[in-house]
Design goal:
Distance between the termini: 44 Å
Oligomer: single chain
Largest sheet: 5 strands, antiparallel
Low-confidence stretches: 1-21, 685-695
InterPro entries: Secre_tail, Sortilin_N, VPS10-sortilin, WD40/YVTN_repeat-like_dom_sf
Shape: globular
Structural class: mainly beta
Number of strands: 64
Pfam families: Por_Secre_tail, Sortilin-Vps10
Domain Sortilin N-terminal: 537-645
Domain Secretion system C-terminal sorting: 700-766
Radius of gyration: 29 Å
Number of helices: 0
Protein name: T9SS type A sorting domain-containing protein
Strand order of the largest sheet: 1-2-57-56-55
Length: 769
């Protein structure tokens, strides 16, 4: 398990009722990490950049041993970063910033030294809902950019290619698939020493014309075709001689013979490089990469093999990977040489990133904690037993929260395609290590129980339905549960009582519901009383579901298009309940008889503290209508504060659960591209805690202060300190000091930002008297 503290900008946390300290950690198992476009820094030894499956750039400062989040793309739910590259001069990262099904798409330039976006290039055809297919900056001037785009037209796709020489102020359309036999481009390039010499490698068309290399000497006004009829993809220039150009063939399904081509005259003519390729399914060359610091070293990534030359391409050695092993090489996407060690290469492949310390001859999986955690998340807490279950790769991982050990179950290998929606799992709230799993398929669905976290399972029920939406256990009959199922329509909801006290004679009883709508929570107390939301109403039963009472007074604001997503009882006050809904959070102080609305925005779950009465937390999930956010209250839900998506580094998620202690709550979040995330909120509103709380990493004192403010960090030195007003304005910034003279500040509340010598950043509030 890997934990890395992530720098957050908490300027919005300055208000007096906000938490005094918060921490964001990525803690998921490294057995599922997937990152792409791995690229070495040109100047800093062993520093590597990569992108996640979503909207984050991550960085490693120790040659891939550990990773941190460097940049978050905050343009809306579903945003993604593609095609990460190091700029020609090595000072910046460039990438495509994309928000699907919208008009937002642009190329961005991230300056490494200042950690800011310094240039943006919005696509000239954004209104076409276009996305970047490939792009290339001119080596000598990053105002010169060549971009190929694809975009939907009805059920079809078209492509347009654009060129700018003035930083995107003006664009020229230089290629349109409809004007060139519907042939799409696979790659674009600008000559390293001539900004007007452009190269387009062409792929497949729909009119019987395919392939060819288009070359222009006048910035795309006129084209010459070379290698006609040959489907081409990657194009690369020799870093020591731009007249030496290398091109590989692309996916052709047999219409083009697989070859690597070389030109020694700037693209006027090409010859075949004599490499014998092993037959595969796609037979395509994806990447041709020179080692910039040792140009005699070349690596070529093919579908199922890697070709390496140590003498500038005169001779080659092939390394073949016949089996499609998802933990080894298959379909290379990028390669990057370590500038300080020519034998070290990172390879981005279709499944997992790979590292070689012998020039590419052997590879090992480079692990990271960034993966897609989808499906539901659940928690068991009872005494010393503490278990977390989070989804990954159509299965789930059980984490023993006492030991931190992760154990995977039902994981589907990355090279197995599945039409199934994945597995749903719920932890039994009475019996430790018991979990219910539900798998749906076209042949029917199966509900199973396991008493060892999933190692062995017994089927409880075979049913024709799509969803397993809730489960509740009778505390005095721990072998008896209520299970709710649903289909695509609300009226397909079913509730079943399942008695498996005799595992060889399971008794299933249908429960007649007072209404047919989705059920997302079932609560059964020690007396056997059942409470559960059905659609937008709450019902209770004291006779095992034979009769039902409607307990929905105060919920009339909700209509048929709304939904209750969660229902919880305060473990420290049985009369207090809370529900999360599309109309916000509602609280009951009389055991669910009457409800009062406390918030108005969409909320998907809610939780009470198990330690301190009054502390609560909730979450809004990523959806078409919302971005992920956390909410918390310290007064039993009367007032709420929100930690918005920007403060949470732009994560997307549809699952979360919570563990409370005396002064804080840790939210476990299953994110779409960062894996398992932990966000800890300090709920101590009495004042700023000090090192007496063992979880605190920073202390400031005195607080309030008049003249001098002292800063202490645990076992590390202070590198930089900045003070901000409550409006976010920077007032003071100093280096390498832990004692600040604040006598000139006006009385009031301020935020202090402290960066330590490891570049971790902490935020605290303080009061100037």
């Amino acid at each position: 398990m890997m934990k890395k503290p992530i720098t957050l900008l908490f300027l919005a946390l300055c208000l007096s009722f906000q938490p005094s300290f918060a921490q964001f950690e990525v803690t998921g198992s490294v057995e599922f990490g997937r990152i792409f476009d791995l690229t070495y820094d040109a100047n800093v030894p062993n520093k590597i950049y990569a992108v996640t499956l979503g909207n984050h750039i991550v960085v490693s400062n120790d040659n891939g041993a550990s990773w941190e989040i460097l940049y978050s793309l905050l343009i809306g739910q579903g945003a993604s970063i593609k095609d990460l590259k190091l700029s020609p001069d090595g000072t910046a990262l460039t990438f495509s910033a994309y928000l699907p099904n919208t008009s937002f798409n642009e190329i961005r330039v991230y300056d490494i030294a200042s950690a800011t976006i310094t240039k943006t290039f919005p696509l000239p055809n954004q209104m076409d809902l276009a996305y970047v297919s490939s792009y290339d900056f001119y080596d000598g001037d990053m105002d010169v950019l060549l971009v190929d785009t694809n975009f939907p037209v009805g059920i079809n796709t078209e492509g347009k290619t654009f060129y700018t020489s003035d930083g995107g102020d003006n664009w020229s359309e230089i290629y349109y698939t409809n004007n060139y036999d519907t042939v799409f481009l696979n790659d674009v390039a600008i000559s390293p020493n001539d900004p007007e010499k452009l190269f387009l490698t062409r792929g497949n068309g729909s009119t019987g014309v395919d392939g060819g290399l288009f070359v222009s000497d006048d910035a795309g006004q006129n084209w010459d075709e070379i290698l006609p009829g040959i489907i081409l993809d990657p194009i690369t220039f020799d870093p020591t001689n731009d007249q030496n150009i290398w091109i590989g063939t692309g996916i052709s399904f047999g219409s083009t013979v697989e070859n690597l081509y070389k030109s020694a005259d700037g693209g006027e003519s090409f010859s075949i490089v004599p490499i014998t390729w092993t037959e595969g399914i796609l037979d395509c060359i994806n990447v041709i990469r020179f080692n910039e610091n040792n140009p005699s070293q070349i690596i070529v990534l093919e579908e199922n093999e890697i070709a390496i030359s140590e003498d500038g391409g005169s001779t080659w050695e092939n390394f073949v990977y016949l089996d499609e092993n998802p933990e080894s090489y298959y379909y290379g996407l990028n390669a990057s040489f370590n500038p300080q060690n020519s034998e070290e290469i990172f390879i981005s492949a279709n499944y997992v990133p790979l590292f070689s310390n012998d020039g590419g001859e052997t590879l090992e999986w480079s692990k990271s904690p960034y993966f897609s955690s989808t499906g539901n998340m659940d928690l068991f807490l009872n005494g010393t037993d503490a278990s977390l279950y989070y989804g990954v790769q159509f299965g789930y991982v059980h984490r023993d929260l006492n030991t931190g050990i992760d154990t995977p179950y039902d994981i589907v290998p990355l090279n197995i395609f599945s039409n199934n929606p994945g597995q749903t799992q719920y932890a039994d709230k009475v019996t430790p290590n018991r979990i219910y799993t539900f798998q749906s398929s076209f042949m029917g669905s199966s509900l199973k129980v396991s008493n060892d976290n999933g190692a062995t399972k017994t089927e409880l029920l075979s049913i024709f339905t799509n969803r397993f939406t809730a489960v509740g256990t009778f505390p005095n009959e721990p072998q008896t549960i209520l299970a709710a199922f649903g289909g695509f329509e609300a009226n397909e909801t079913q509730l079943k009582k399942i008695d498996f006290s005799d595992i060889n004679n399971i008794v299933v009883t249908d429960i007649t519901l007072p209404a047919l709508d989705y059920i997302h929570k079932i609560i059964i107390d020690n007396t056997g009383k059942i409470m559960m939301p059905i659609g937008v109403e709450v019902y209770s039963s004291t006779d095992g579901g034979t009769t039902w009472t409607n307990n929905s007074t105060g919920l009339e604001v909700m209509n048929a298009s709304d939904l209750i997503f969660d229902l919880q009882m305060d473990p420290l006050n049985a009369d207090r309940m809370a529900l999360a809904s599309s109309k916000g959070i509602f609280i009951s102080e009389d055991g669910g008889e009457n409800w009062n609305r406390k918030t108005t925005s969409l909320v998907f779950n809610v939780a009470f503290s198990t330690e301190n009465e009054g502390a609560m937390t909730a979450a809004t999930y990523s959806s078409q209508l919302s971005e992920f956010a956390l909410h918390y209250s310290t007064d039993s839900g009367e007032t709420w504060e929100t930690i918005n998506n920007e403060q949470l580094l732009g994560i997307g998620s549809s699952s979360s659960t919570y563990v409370f202690d005396d002064n804080s709550v840790t939210a476990y979040i299953g994110s779409f591209d960062l894996g398992l995330v932990e966000y800890t909120i300090d709920l101590n509103v009495a004042g700023t805690p000090d090192f007496e709380n063992g979880n605190d990493a920073i202390a400031i004192y005195p607080n309030p202060a008049r003249e001098v403010l002292n800063i202490e960090l645990k076992n590390i030195t202070v590198a930089q300190v900045a003070i901000y007003s409550i409006n976010g304005a920077k007032i003071l910034e100093v280096e390498n000091t832990s004692n600040l003279n604040i006598s000139q500040l006006a009385a009031g509340m301020y935020l202090i930002r402290v960066k330590d010598s490891n570049n971790a950043v902490f935020f605290k509030r303080f009061v100037k008297q």
